[in-house]
Description:
The chain is α/β, with parallel strands linked by helices and 434 residues long. It has helices at residues 15-21, 25-36, 62-77, 81-85, 94-104, 116-131, 136-155, 158-161, 165-177, 192-203, 216-226, 236-242, 305-359, 364-392, 398-410, and strands at 2-9, 41-49, 52-59, 89-92, 184-188, 208-212, 229-231, 245-248, 269-273, 290-293. A hairpin with a 2-residue loop joins strand 2 (41-49) and strand 3. The chain is elongated, with a radius of gyration of 30 Å.
Amino acid sequence: xxxxxxxxxxxTTGVDLLEQVVLGQGQAERLETTLGGNEHVDASVVVSTxxxxxxxxxxxxxxxxxxGITESLSAATGLPVNTLRDHLYVHFExxxxxxxxxxxxxxxxxxxxxxxxxxxxxxxxxxAQEGGHLAPSLSALMQQALRVGKRVHTxxxxxxxxxxxxxxxxxxxxxxxxxxxxxxxxxxGAGAMSGLAAHTLARAGVGEVTIINRTPAKAQRLAxxxxxxxxxxxxxxxxxxxxxxVISCTGAVGHVLDETNxxxxxxxxxxxDLALPRDIAAELGDLPGITLLSLEDLGAGVADDAEKTQVDxxxxxVxxxxxxFLASRRAAAVAPTVAALRARAADVVAAELTRLGQRTELxxxxxxxxxxxxxxxxxxxxxxxxxxxxxxxxxxxxxxDYAALLRTLFDLDPHESRVSQIPQVGPGAAGxxx
Length: 434
């Protein structure tokens, strides 16, 4: 079995194409079900966020799995296979592990270091578990990725570097509108990102915050939690007209804001679109008085040397975790060969001691001495190859080569390994024919 990651993110394509690929919860679950029927894919986890769609998979064959996953993504998104292939990246084995850990650490995010990805990965893992699409090695990868992400945020200062997309938008909005304490903000939506936006606006001391959502009860709850004011969805156009800053992040299909409910304005107005697919029609950015900020606009990298130092520290931690995980993975891969070798030796010893017990009358003391001697001989013979293969397991290639050589030389089948019991010899022993 091998690990691969195949996907598309803000780093490999523009928002126009990426928003056509982003999957809803139901679509992601259906994609996993489809992948479960692929003969080349043994297990899978589908991660779909506003700036990435990725399939983490444990596969039998590389090329067959890549083709199968690409075709499944095409079926799920409606995009032609050839269009997808031009923008998809594929990471295999070591690079797949490194990518998973970097994503969990927020190092591959639009806003470097953001922590929301941890919750999104956790939800993707839970969905795969409930759907029965996981296998042990893939589960171990995803669980460790989550631990690495938490460790990065706990042990480095990446949080001082990372600014959420909302925080970045507020910095840009303030440069257009002036002090936010005198501004009126509108948040459209009441999901996780909208909730983050509302709380961030409240902490920033924005003069007035209005919450609007298709479900009034959700708008009310978020308004209560942030000191904002809820409004009905029917009031959307009026709420936008009254606001200086509008932040939209819904799960809507199609635009929430376009020229039918937003017009030119004499006063500066900032529209922030954090959704994918996009909530706000791009042409609104051409209207007089309107400044439109999209995910692409907010996706700037690290700002200065101090921030780069913190990102480098997080990247170093991730690199160390990748090395440790790969070493343990290789050790686990050779362990069945070691077990098979020792089981084969035990079989040989057992057969010879049985024959000895049938042909020779030994006292209990002599029988015990024979067993002990044979056991010591076997242990000494096996000690060096056992230790050496475990040492080599930490190396990228030689450990696997050594394990393959042992399997060939001794005709071992790791899948049939077991612990054989060395029989007793002497009076009353099994096989004693006296």
